[in-house]
Amino acid sequence: MDSAQTAYLPSMGTLTEEASPRERMKTQGSGIMDVAGVPAVQSAFDEIAWRITCERLASDSNHGCGLSHDLFVCRLSGAVEAAVLQLPEVHRAKALYIAREWDYATRFEIDEMQQWNAENGYCCHGIELGCCPAGCDEE
Questions:
Q1: Does 77 or 64 have the greater pLDDT score?
Q2: Which residue in 11, 20, 82, 125 has its CB near the most CB atoms, within 10 A?
Q3: Residue of 95, 93, 90, 60 lying closest to 76 (CA atoms)
Q4: Model-level pTM?
Q5: How far apart are CA 10 and CA 23, in angstroms?
């Protein structure tokens, strides 16, 4: 097979004039393309900046939680989920994994925590009924 007749062969990385523009694009850069077939720019995840963001979100979430860890987790988790939406989708899983260091919890985990609290005499803030300053046990 002569080189003028050879199309793109992934195993060999060979291109000719017969290769389509899309095949030619696949050999350039990371191979990630946007919907127009143009190589997409994929930014690196800035772990240090994300850790600083998590620290700030944790500090903000701590204010007004009355030292209730459950309330802190709910506030922090909501703030983290809002912040992570600002990141490229490709970085979100890593960001949420890192946020666990500050006690980020998924919606499912928070629901389980709330259910356990309700079944065991604690209010939605994680404080024993009769002791919550928000008056959760009052009707």
A1: 77
A2: 125
A3: 60
A4: 0.66
A5: 9
